[in-house]
Amino acid sequence: MTDNDLASLEPLEPIAGAAPAAPATQDPMAAQRAGLAAPAFSMYCTDASMYRFLFAGVMIVVGCMMPTTANVAVSGFQTISGGFYTLIGIALIWSWWGSIANNRAMGVKWVLAASIPLIGSIWYTVGFNAEAALELATQSGWVQSNYVEVGEAPKFVASMSLGEMFGDMGSSFRQNAEAAARCGGFWRLYGPGNLLILIGSLIAEFGLIMGIVGGAKQNKKAAQEKRMKASERKRK
After folding, report:
1. Which of the 8 DSSP states describes residue 67?
2. How far apart are CA 231 and CA 219, in angstroms?
3. pLDDT of 175-185, one tens digit each?
């Protein structure tokens, strides 16, 4: 078949009911969206503090999703304080996700707001009474037996203070089953969500302090370099 034969062919008729093809247009944002980096990552962002603040927000939110008392049926976000902590954690994730994408800090105010769950968690930890928590959990039916001793009925055991808990933690490494049960019982009464909220808020505030200290050092170094350059120009 030659080119003349192809040219003599009549064009095909469109299929009945088919919509005419839309003209091809180039969306300028399509190429940009196709080249976006993975979520919460930017090759141009080299500031580790931004990723640290993002991770702190994730820890706070995860802590609020977990129980903050011995009652496993109630998560932290279902309480008034836990609801505020959840909002702060989400704001940290949202703001620093955008900061990483744009390589520009935009969520410092939410890092300052993270001091609220930090103060609340420290206050809760200092005032935590394991004996009172165990009595309340037992009367409310929140806890069940976590240790069975030979010849005795099953019972719930827990460390009665942070000092005892750390001691039981060391004993559990030596394969002491009762010590391990007491350590787990303490964290059940304390509420595992409180621990994650405390650590997440600590990471946020520690990162903020380190950023302030690092910025002050950079400003001091820049001032010294400026004075040295000025003195060199005077000598010349």
Report:
1. B
2. 18
3. 888 888 899 99
Q: Tell me if 157 sits within 8 A of 181, measured CB to CB.
A: yes
3-state secondary structure of 85: helix
Contacts of 85-89 with CB under 8 Å at 24 or more apart are 85/60, 85/116, 85/117, 85/120, 85/197, 86/60, 86/61, 88/57, 88/60, 88/113, 88/114, 88/116, 88/117, 89/57, 89/58, 89/59, 89/60, 89/61, 89/63, 89/64, 89/117, 89/200
Q: How far apart are CA 1 and CA 6, in angstroms?
A: 7
Q: How confident is the model at residue 233 (pLDDT cuts 50, 70, 90)?
A: confident
Pull the structure tokens for residue 27.
């969306």
Of the candidates 212, 66, 197, 211, the one whose C-alpha atom is nearest the C-alpha of residue 119 is: 197
Q: Tell me the torsion sign for CA atoms 132, 137, 139, 144.
A: negative
The pLDDT tens digits for 150-205 are: 667 788 889 998 889 988 888 877 788 888 889 999 999 999 999 999 999 999 99
